[in-house]
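Encode chain A's predicted structure.
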Amino acid sequence: MASLLQLTKAHKHYGDQVLLDGAEVTISDNVKVGFIGRNGAGKSTLLRILLGEEELDSGEVSRHPSLRLGYLRQHDPFLPGETSLEFLMRDSEQPDWKCGEVAGQFEIKGAYLDGPIAKLSGGWQTRLKLAALLLHDPNLLVLDEPTNFLDLRTQILLEHFLRNFRAACLIVSHDRTFLNATCTHTLNLSRGKLTSFPGKVDAFLVFQKENREREERSNAAILAKRKHLEDFIARNKARAATAGLAQSKAKALEKLEMVEITGDEPVPTIRAPRVEPRKGTALRCKDLAIGYPERQIASNVQLEIEHGSRAAVVGDNGQGKTTFLRTLVDSLKPLAGEIKWGHGCKIGVYAQHVYTSLNEKKTVIDHLREQAAFGKKEQEILEVAGSLLFRGSDVKKPVSVLSGGERARLCLAGLLLSDYNILILDEPGNHLDVDTVDALVDALLAYQGSVIFTSHDRHFTARVATCIIEVRDGGVNNYNGKYEDYVYRVNKEIEAGERELASTRVKLPDEVKYATKAVVRGPRRTEKEIRKELKTLEKNIALLDEQKRAANAQLMKSSDAKEALRLHNEVQALTEQLDPAEERWVELQAELEEIS
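Encoded structure for chain A:
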């Protein structure tokens, strides 16, 4: 198994902050690694170092000569007015049939393929960027938070793709369900050290917890033994008869060393807002229509939510989940019908339109004091701030200098200090690490009020939700089943679509498998002429393919840098000859099928 990337004795500092302290890791061919760590631990910095966009203070990054790295960037590489197919062909320099075939793996077809990219949602644009990556034939994919803002259907499509992807992956994500479904190995960054674990993220978290508990028990035993020895020495060192024994015990005491526990900081604890539990109907929607003056999203909505419920609003991106939430909190006016909240409902909102409109002149601590319920003590305010990564001097930062993620966490902290008995949460886990998401789950489970939320994190939703509301095909309805049932149904729909696509490609190779645009040809040739060219072409392809495999095999075994570079160039040259030959073979097959 070849080593594609290797980090050795890596050190990196930003001022007083130590991000990498002698960190080491090896990423091998065909291994899928889930990369986790607390927010601010240095994961993004390490990615930039591996990508060659940032330098180490000291240490070394070794890259295999055959490394073809594909990186899912956050910025959009699209041109104005460009269609999906035009982008894929421009970005990959591959023919239209090949682009269409790969795009089909992500359900990008029809109007999604031939229409303008500007009309696609963020989730569909992410699918398009993934298809573009695949067309470059990378042997190491680097994905940084790929599930952020992706709906469930797109996440499952991405999982299917990654499970079938025959190359290495390094995936940064806080979504445990996604990592468990796609990655066989785990990499953790904590206090400047990298820990590689040959198992899934859940197994690693159990191992980490058990290891920490074992070290704590060991330290407790050592402390007890120390105390016992110190007491013995104190009682016996002054007596002549036992002075020698006391001296011996003192030497034994010196040898007792505590185990340094190298885990993360203490697991964050988030307290739920303390409210009086209520009974009856919290929300009633009657004959409700939602949307915008120029476009209706859903109509005839008849819905009730009981006090104490934790309702997950689910559905594909673009179906209207956020529109529905915004209508509930009067950020958008209903197009028709009515929304009635129960008596005494106090509603707190966590959504993008809220955390982008914070008072820029306030400091973090000023905002939290303002949001905190009457009687909250300063210590409790600071504890909540700390659990959401505002520690020490960070609480004195003005809102104007906070990033989008920091503003989101600040709004969430403010809600948790409030006395709202209804919480409306739009993607509350997007800017939180694994441990903080779990702490938020525990807080919401202990909360006596009602919660209406959207989340693309399946682990979070499965633990929190007590009922499911589905936004789909112009309606908003109670889904009569558990969240696991809903996920199962979406999975089955995707699998059925994949089977249909595969069978259609076999039945209609000319229209679907190969071409997305008409192929212009010269005068039609005879079957004999086509078969003669085809036979010569197949011999040439077989020879080139054999040479490429042999060069690749030598490249994987080579340890000499110059020889490896020569072999890498040879493989690239053979690939450049193979690609047009294979494209021509497809064209000839299509000609034969037309004749027959």
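The two ends are 46 Å apart (CA to CA).
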